[in-house]
Amino acid sequence: MKHWCLILVISALMAQPTSVHPGGDRWEIKTSLAVNSDLAHPREISIESFLALPEPPAVGMSRLQKVRMSESVAGFHEGDILSLQGWLHLVALESDGDYHMQMSVSQESGDHCAIVEIPSPDFVQSGSLASLLRQGRQIVRQRVLRGHEPSTSGDVLRHPARVQVVGALFFDGAHVGDMPRGKKGMHADTRWELHPVTSVKFLPSPGQGK
Question: Does a cis peptide bond (omega within 30 degrees of 0) precede residue 196?
C-alpha cells in the first residue's frame, strides 16, 4: 500500500506544470488595463484586419515599460478593448504563467495566426481583473484541455474551436527583429496581441446553429 501511495505522489508531482514566475518586459502593461477601459463595449475587429494591423512608428520600447504607447495605428491605440473572433488551434503555458493562445482565420490551418494571452491571476494587482482572468482560464481548461493545465510546449487542438476573445490591444515590441513567433510550426503574422484577454467565449461552428 505504501508503494502505491508513493507512486501516486510521484505521479501527481510529475503532473504539475513547470514553475512559473512574473515576466519582465512591459510586465505592468501586460497585467493591467488602461484607465476607463470599457469591457462591456469592446470594439469589434475581424481577425483579417487584426493580422493586417501595421507596426507602430519606430519608438523606443525602453521608455514604454510602464506606459502604453500614445501613437495611433489604423485608428487604434494600445490598450483599446477589442473583440476578436477566430479559430483556436493551440494553447500553451508560458514561463510567466500566461495562457498563450494561437488563433487563425482558418479552421483547417493554425498558420498565419494571432497570439492572445491570459495572464495568471496570481500576478495581477487588480482583484476584479484577476477574477476575470481566473474565469477565462477555467473556461479554456474545461472546454479544450479536459480540466488540465496546458503544456509548456503547447497543446494543439485536434478539433479547432471557434472562439470570441475580448482583451486589450498590446504591441509585443520585445520581439521586433526576431524570427516569426508561434509554436508548433504555426507562425504569427503580427506582433500585435490581445493581452490581457479578459473573456473567452466558445462559439458554435458554422452550420451548428446557436
Answer: yes
Q: How many residues does the chain have?
A: 210
Residue 208 sits at φ, ψ, to 5 deg, of -90, -15
Four-residue CA torsion sign, 204, 98, 89, 157: negative
- Angle 161-166-169 from CA coordinates, rounded to 5°: 120
Residue type present at position 150 = P
Residue type (1 letter), 42: P
Query: CA triplet 117, 198, 82: central angle to 5 degrees?
Result: 85
User: Distance between terminal CA atoms of the chain?
Assistant: 51
Q: What is the pLDDT of residues 143-194, one digit of tens each?
A: 999 999 999 999 999 999 999 999 999 999 876 666 678 999 999 999 999 9
